[in-house]
Amino acid sequence: MKATVKHIVKKVTLELIYDVVDERTKELKDEMKEMRAEYREEFKTVKEDIKSVNSRIDQIHTRLDQIMLMLTDIKRQG
Fold first, then answer.
1. What's the rounded Cα separation, in Å, for the pair 15 and 74?
2. Which of 1, 10, 25, 46 is the most exposed place for a label (fewest CB within 10 A)?
3. If DSSP codes are grouped into helix, strand and coil, which group holds residue 18?
4. What is the maximal distance between C-alpha atoms in the chain?
5. Helix H or strand E segment including 78
6. What is the DSSP letter of 46?
7. How many angstroms separate the CA atoms of 60 and 57, rounded?
8. Could you say which DSSP state residue 68 is in?
9. For the chain, give me the number of helices (H) and strands (E)?
10. Distance between CA 15 and CA 23 in Å, rounded?
11. Taking 90 as the threshold, does the pLDDT of residue 5 lie above it?
């Protein structure tokens, strides 16, 4: 009888442990999904920031080219 009770308690304990492990695994998977979604959003933001910076650099280069042409014209005239 004692062995049977011990076996039943062991089986129930293992089932409870497996349930807790399964629940925690699901929670971790859900957290990972959320983190991936956040990462994607942050990556998009960084990508947009880089595009903005590149656009501004292109504008500066264009303006510098204009200034160089103006200086060249001034130098020729003077």
1. 88
2. 1
3. helix
4. 114
5. none
6. H
7. 5
8. H
9. 1, 0
10. 12
11. no
Q: Measured between alpha carbons, how far apart are the two ends of the chain, in Å?
A: 114
How far is it, in rounded angstroms, from Cα 16 to Cα 25?
14
Count Cα atoms within 13 angstroms, Cβ side, for 48.
Answer: 6
Query: What would the two tokens of residue 18 be?
Result: 């497996």
Q: What is the pLDDT of residues 35-45, one digit of tens each?
A: 999 999 999 99
Alpha-carbon span 41 to 47, nearest angstrom: 10
Both tokens assigned to 28: 């971790």
Q: Which two tokens stand for residue 61?
A: 């280069």
Q: Quick check: 60 pLDDT over 80?
A: yes
